[in-house]
Write a structure and sequence with these properties.
Layout lengths: L4 H7 L4 E4 L12 H4 L2 E4 L3 H14 L3 E5 L1 H10 L7 E6 L7 H13 L2 E4 L2 H7 L8 E3 L22 E6 L8 H13 L4 E6 L6 H10 L6 E4 L7 H5 L4 E4 L8 H8 L3 E5 L4 H4 L7 E3 L7 H12 L2 H13 L7 H11 L3
Helix pairs in contact: 3-4, 4-5, 7-12
């Protein structure tokens, strides 16, 4: 949404309701006019009620909700808004818990339209509502165009891998750490940096790192502001992203735009916008569950400078002609009618 605020604010009378605290570092790049669009409501049932009142008073032509708490706001608010076009935005192909299932399923069925972040999510949502009202929105936040970089392999080179995202169980960072362990066993000088907010996995992962004596090979860092993600990516040549489940996988797309060689599981939308050994390195089941074989495949790529350069250049070309989230969202809002 941050990437679309400027465009949406220019085209519409925009109001954004945030259910929870707004991280000031995340909105530092917005103008004063854009920040005025933001309305903060802390977590809790009182905040939900206040957000409903705020929406009803605003009487929007279009109401978009994202994630289950806002689905609750949208469901209640639309009871008082007969002329509002309600759009439920869904980002995952699996519900994380019962509460999310209840409210997001209800929102999808009540909504006039559903915006999905990938074709895999569209297929999932189609189980709960008519496919005719589902639209796939691009989740590409920006089109980075940078100079081609040349990852290379030297005996004295430390291969620096990065992960940017939630430190959550579904992201299978434990699987990535096991791959790093196997690379170390093969004598590869390697370091793995993990950036992101803790979703309850960091303590367990730190224990794994300690048990496997990888303290000098794996490090944790705080979440990265959207404004600085590109800068962080350009400090690395390799992304290691071994998630069990994804929608669009924005961090993978951004890493590809920045020329990183992405070692990733073939889940969600990833295999639709990348090709194995051409624009990324993909791991499909059962290979992705065998860290030793994954490490072997990674090592083969690292040793081939020409292949690394080819993958890096192809990755940067993938999204050059694709619509961004702001462009796609604006277009779909203009196209939808009840």
């Amino acid at each position: 949404m941050l990437s679309a605020i400027k465009t949406l604010n220019e085209k519409f009378d925009l109001k954004i309701i945030c259910l929870g605290s707004i991280d000031q570092d995340f909105i530092a790049g917005l103008s004063a006019a854009e920040k005025k669009c933001l309305n903060e409501y802390k977590h809790g049932i009182i905040s939900i009620l206040k957000s409903v009142v705020s929406v009803v008073k605003f009487r929007p032509d279009y109401l978009l909700t994202s994630l289950w708490r806002s689905s609750l706001t949208g469901i209640v608010a639309t009871l008082f808004l007969n002329k509002t076009v309600y759009v439920a935005c869904i980002h995952s192909s699996k519900f994380q818990h019962v509460i999310e299932r209840f409210f997001n399923t209800l929102a999808v069925r009540k909504a006039n339209f559903v915006f999905a972040d990938s074709n895999i999510v569209k297929e999932f949502v189609g189980r709960f509502t008519s496919s005719d009202k589902i639209r796939v929105i691009s989740f590409l936040t920006k089109r980075d165009q940078i100079e081609f970089r040349t990852p290379n392999f030297r005996p004295d080179h430390v291969f620096r891998f990065v992960f940017i995202g939630r430190i959550a169980k579904v992201k299978r960072i434990d699987r990535a750490i096991e791959i790093i362990e196997w690379l170390v066993k093969r004598g590869v000088a390697v370091h793995f940096d993990i950036y992101g907010p803790d979703d309850g996995e960091k303590k367990r992962l730190k224990q794994i790192i300690k048990e496997r004596r990888l303290d000098s090979n794996v490090s944790f860092f705080e979440a990265v502001s959207p404004n600085t993600v590109g800068t962080v990516f350009r400090s690395y040549n390799y992304l290691l992203h071994m998630s069990d489940r994804e929608g669009f996988a924005m961090s993978v797309a951004e890493a590809m735009q920045n020329g990183l060689i992405c070692f990733v599981t073939a889940v969600g939308e990833i295999p639709r916008y990348s090709a194995d050994m051409k624009s990324a390195v993909l791991f499909e089941s059962p290979l992705c569950d065998d860290p030793e074989r994954c490490a072997d495949k990674i090592l083969r790529v690292l040793k081939d400078e020409d292949l690394c350069l080819s993958i890096s250049r192809n990755a940067q070309k993938v999204f050059l002609s694709k619509m961004t989230y702001a462009e796609s969202l604006s277009e779909e809002i203009n196209n939808i009618r009840v």
